[in-house]
Automatic annotation (TrEMBL):
<keyword id="KW-0863">Zinc-finger</keyword>
<keyword id="KW-0862">Zinc</keyword>
<feature type="domain" description="Zinc finger DksA/TraR C4-type">
    <location>
        <begin position="80"/>
        <end position="112"/>
    </location>
</feature>
<protein>
    <submittedName>
        <fullName>TraR/DksA family transcriptional regulator</fullName>
    </submittedName>
</protein>
<feature type="zinc finger region" description="dksA C4-type">
    <location>
        <begin position="85"/>
        <end position="109"/>
    </location>
</feature>
<dbReference type="InterPro" id="IPR037187">
    <property type="entry name" value="DnaK_N"/>
</dbReference>
<dbReference type="GO" id="GO:0008270">
    <property type="term" value="F:zinc ion binding"/>
</dbReference>
<dbReference type="InterPro" id="IPR000962">
    <property type="entry name" value="Znf_DskA_TraR"/>
</dbReference>
<keyword id="KW-0479">Metal-binding</keyword>
<dbReference type="Pfam" id="PF01258">
    <property type="entry name" value="zf-dskA_traR"/>
</dbReference>
Amino acid sequence: MDEVAAVLRERRREALERLAGTGAERDAVVAASREQVADDEHDPEDATIAYERRLLDALAHDVRERVAEVDAALDRLERGTYGTCTRCHRPVPVERLRALPSAATCVTCASR
Ligand SMILES: [Zn+2]
């Protein structure tokens, strides 16, 4: 199971790196929008900037959720419940865990 923990920690690190990236991108978009507001209050690009900001916020939200999923998986690993579906308490197939190490549920419960 040490191998699984290593994979999970690696995924967590990658996700956090990505989160830092989206944060920096968002700051750049916000800074650009401030300059534009100074230039022209009714700049047609405002909508684009708002859209980009929403997109980056959504992306950051997704990454945060992924980190939470990985944390929960690491927690289950520590408690010895890793690989057991959190809903039906049946074993999660090894192939599913291999494809998605942070999977909390079996395929049946996930598709419900
Ligand atoms: Zn299940």
